[in-house]
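Q: Hi! First time doing this. I have a protein sequence and I read that you can turn it into a structure. Is that right? Here it is:
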Amino acid sequence: MDKILKVVDVIIVNFNSTDYAIQSISAIKRISKDVPFKIVVFDNASADAPERILDFHPGTNLILNSSNIGYSRAINLALETCSSPYVLILNPDTFISGGPIGCVIEYLEHNRSIGIIGPKILEEDGSIQGSARRYPSLCTTMFGRKSLLTRLFPGNPITKREFFCFNDTGFHAYEVDWVSGACMFIRRKAIEEIKGFDEDYFLYWEDADLCKRMNDAGWKTVYYTKAIATHFVGKSSDTAPIQSIGHFHHSSYKYFMKHSNKLVKWVAPIVILGLSIRYLTIIVSTFVNRKKFLYIQHKILNRIQFFIVKNNHRCP
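A: Yes, that's right. Below is the predicted 3D structure, encoded as structure tokens:
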């Protein structure tokens, strides 16, 4: 087995999401028999017996870290353990559901200027998730995927402009600013050229930063709708919701300060105020809804198992 060329390295960073990781790997194996691949799971000191992954998926390279070093650092360390020309970064709560991996690899082989490909990502109910976007800006805070204005006015022209994936272009592949790190295919040569993920991002926004730096280095990011994944949003972060919300807002400010011009940085105090208000609002909402999460978690896992068995598609 070791003599076979591993065309794709699948990297999953796990933190207290072992049940989801097991199901995600099952989905990969079911739908991606067309190319050889190697699975690397980097575990950030989970407390839910991550060793179980090997019971279900022997042969997985399971790295058990003694502490939670953050998402970006974990990805970079996992990258050092493998060497395939292409890498699939996958959240444990994300499942490849349509278009085998070979579809994407073939497209990358024929388009050497592409550094990153993001598949069409669906919500649990089958609707399109906002996974292909413009670079984050002040407008993003008001018309983001889960912002109040987007919820009050779904389909408004500003949100559609911010999210390329909500616009039916008639093409199966087109260039975008950035794609979600929940599921992204990366050319190893490209990510090595920009020295991997920025480890200043402990969690969240590292995907936007990666795509921005890729673009600055001359690599394209493409949204590819022939490949499909389903993201059970937030299931990999629900085990530590308060910390996750804090990391999200902290990282968004880091991105803003890193990639904005000097003129825009003058409004930094306003950004801090806005992020603080948003943070407190979500914290209150999270406490109210926490009991609901504990009640439905088992049902969600059962639905995921059914979903994986049901979806066994091939390239169009």
